[in-house]
Amino acid sequence: MKLLWNSSTPIGQSGYGVCTREICSRLKKAGHDVRIATKHGYFGHHEWGDGIFVFDGNLNHLNQYIERFDIDYIISYWDVWV
In degrees rounded to 5, what are phi and psi of residue 67? Predict the structure, then answer.
């Protein structure tokens, strides 16, 4: 399954960063194709931990990545106000 996780960067030390790191690593180990769309000062893209692709998750880029990588599900992990 192709998953797009939309939250904080996995290298962040916030609660969101820790959850992103833990959950995405476990999803990848379960055999899913996981990609992370993040904000909070991260611009660009790179590969993180076991081939998980991380990229700038602003709205303009999100739509392009969803179509380009044929994403099955989007998981958004933010507070409601974000």
Answer: -70, -45
Q: Please list, in sequence order, all residues whose beta carbon lies within 8 angstroms of the beta carbon of residue 75, skipping any fewer than 6 positions away.
A: 3, 4, 5, 6
Q: CA 16, CA 7: separation in Å to the nearest integer?
A: 7
- Rg (C-alpha) for the chain, rounded Å, is 12
Could you write out the DSSP letters of every residue in the chain?
A: -EEEEEES-TT--SHHHHHHHHHHHHHHHTT-EEEEEE-SS--SEEEETTTEEEEE--HHHHHHHHHHTT-SEEEE-S-TT-
pLDDT (tens digit per residue) in 42-71: 666 777 877 898 988 777 778 888 888 899
pTM value is 0.85
Question: Are 56 and 44 a contacting pair, CB within 8 Å?
Answer: yes
